[in-house]
Specification:
about 260 residues, about 80% helix, globular
């Protein structure tokens, strides 16, 4: 694999995403929601910081997921619709470089977006408390890795499916990913046999996005063990690597001639 090819595609993807009006619109809406959190906090006695953090993290998550899904799905589909994919695959650029470059470009876009929004949230917290919040910082940090998982899933579906179906499947996995623990609970209440085994397999195959959820700890200012954060990051990186590998395999089977 040539890093030069991946880097070129990543930078081009980043520039396209920054120019995308949807990205600007979502960022503005996210910033407005964070600002609204401060307005609400002024009207609520005794829960100012909790409301600021709760609404702020919710805004960051919602708009981060929307950007990850919409732009993640459009990365490959846009190339196909413009027919530029035919030019790309005929150049000395391997298909795995194309997929990895697209992912890296959107990962950089999300990093910039999340940095701006989380910085604004920290400023809002600082203005109220006189200091930044480490739990909020860690929550935002894990949100980023959750978004990377979502992006990899969006790219996987877009590599073989239509935009609408890719959108629905990605959102479905996002919702299921936050409810995956219920599969283990259900398996415990089923009689011994194939049922519990199948549910456990599904649980380990599907993304467990609750591993990245530190919102409750951030809202209540609870300490989060560094080991938990590192384990969640490791889980996210391994899952992303697996999904991107599958995306490359699927993308290689497509005929663009």
């Amino acid at each position: 694999m040539r890093l030069g090819g991946v880097r070129a595609i990543a930078l081009n993807t980043f520039r396209e995403a920054i120019r995308d009006k949807i990205l600007y619109l979502l960022v503005v809406f996210g910033l407005v929601l964070i600002g609204a959190a401060r307005i609400i906090s002024w009207l609520t006695v005794g829960a100012q910081i909790k409301i600021i953090v709760d609404v702020g993290l919710a805004a960051i998550t919602i708009f981060g997921v929307l950007v990850a899904v919409f732009i993640g799905i459009s990365l490959v589909q846009r190339e196909i619709e413009r027919r530029t994919i035919y030019t790309v695959v005929t150049k000395p650029i391997h298909r795995h470089e194309f997929i990895l470059g697209k992912f890296a470009g959107l990962a950089l876009t999300l990093l910039v977006m999340l940095f701006v929004m989380s910085a604004l949230l920290q400023v809002a917290v600082f203005l109220k408390t006189g200091h930044a919040s480490l739990p909020v910082l860690r929550a935002c940090f894990l949100i980023y890795f959750e978004l990377l998982v979502i992006v990899s899933i969006a790219i996987l579906f877009s590599s073989f499916s239509t935009p609408i179906l890719s959108f629905l499947l990605t959102l479905m996995l996002y919702v299921i990913g936050h409810l995956s623990y219920s599969l283990l609970d259900l398996a415990k209440h089923l009689p011994a046999g194939a049922g519990p085994f199948v549910l456990k397999v599904v649980y380990y195959v599907l993304p467990n996005l609750e591993n990245f959820n530190l919102k409750a700890a951030a809202v209540h200012g609870l300490p989060v063990p560094t080991g938990f954060v590192l384990t969640s990051i490791e889980y996210g990186l391994v899952y992303v690597a697996a999904i991107l590998t599958l995306s490359v395999i699927v993308f290689r089977t497509r005929d663009f001639t």
